[in-house]
Amino acid sequence: MVVGFGTSSEITGKNKQDSQLASATDFEQVHQQLADNFKELQDPRGKQGVLHPFISIVMIALLATIGGATGWEDIETYGVSHQSWLSSFLQLPFGIPSADTYRRLFERISPKEFECSFNSWLNSLVLDLGAQVIPIDGKTLKGSYDRNQEQSALHVVSAWASKHRLFLGQVKVDDKSNEITAIPALLSLLDISGCIITIDAMGTQHEIARLIHFKGADYILALKANHPTLFEDVKQWFENAAVNNFDGIEYSYDVRVESAHHRKEKRQIWAVSIEQMGGLYKQSQWSGLQTIIKVVRTRHLWNKTTQEVMFYLSSLPADAQKIGLAIRQHWSIENQLHWVLDVTFNEDACRIRKDNSPENFALLKRWSINLLNKETNYKRSIRQKTKRASMDEEYMLKVLRASIPLHSNSSQV
């Protein structure tokens, strides 16, 4: 008796089919856990004329954004390209939704409810922030303005966990307001106990310092000319102290020198406790204030030398090395979040601008960065990760599995 094993093409086809089936099964488990975060998200559509399931639309939009989608047409293209795979775990009775379907839906989804879905996912990681630096900074979505509707560009304030490289949340700045009102709203959403909050000069306000201290965190706030009297007093005090070589003054000093890309930078930091400053400052105005800091950055380029002097207020003890590291880490929100949003996700050029869609799409992009950062086996840039996720369904599954804790029984054999 001759036993037939089939041709090589038949075997290859069967192996591929089995692999796709296993992938779909795994993804269905991951999808279910991710979809649980959307259970409180309300479908804003009416009951008449609805063709596509709400969760399917949201899920495809998130997956496409992980794959680098920068607009509604990109999301539709991603869905069409992966329709067979998507239909194995999503309900798609009328196929892939059109670009206009995504647009209309995200224009109407409540940004607050969508943010709650994101927070639900973030909390599912059981993330302990610990004693890490959390920079808070604002960003304008330059392409979201609408001249015909006299609508200014959307401006959001975001929080970033520097150690875990995770976006923690955002608050929209109202048209007739500024970051001073948005920052307290953002801080109220976060559990920042034990962390170090760094904010640029716009957030150097008595109430913001009080809120940070009340929530059990420390702060480092940039001091600029928006507090002219305090700024000039601090500047003059450090100039006088330097002339006398800090004689009789206890202070902490640290210096760092770095060289890269034909540039050499020297950073000098002086940290002085307010007790050493002769009671010049009303400590009660700044809740928890302990230290005043001076930072001098000297950059030597191939054709010029520049110097920048900055001052900071902090609730931390006068430890120049620790404070200097925290100030340096503040820029991680620019380098690892804002830069990636503009260069990889083309955010500044994005013309999504109607109703709630700019805020909701901004959250989709930031959520995607978190998911991609959590996958650490593929040692590439975020841009390369998005490209691979858009083309490789198995890698997309790895990205999601790295960020979504599965139930314990799902991993048992």
Please bin the fraction of helical residues.
40-55%
Largest sheet: 9 strands, mixed
Low-confidence runs: 1-16, 407-413
> According to CATH, what is the class of the largest domain?
Alpha Beta
The average pLDDT value, as a whole number, equals: 88
Shape: elongated
Number of strands: 9
| Cα-atom radius of gyration | 26 Å
- Write down the oligomeric state: single chain
CATH topology (fold) name of the largest domain:
Transposase Inhibitor Protein From Tn5, Chain A, domain 1
CATH architecture of the largest domain: Alpha-Beta Complex
> If helices are DSSP runs of H or I spanning 4 or more residues, what is the number of helices?
14
Q: Kindly name the structural category.
A: alpha+beta
Cα end-to-end separation: 37 Å
Order of helices and strands: HHHHHHEEEHEHEHEEEEHHHHH
Strand order of the largest sheet: 3-2-1-4-5-9-8-7-6
Assigned CATH superfamily of the largest domain: Transposase Inhibitor Protein From Tn5, Chain A, domain 1
Beta-strand percentage?
15-25%
Number of domains: 2
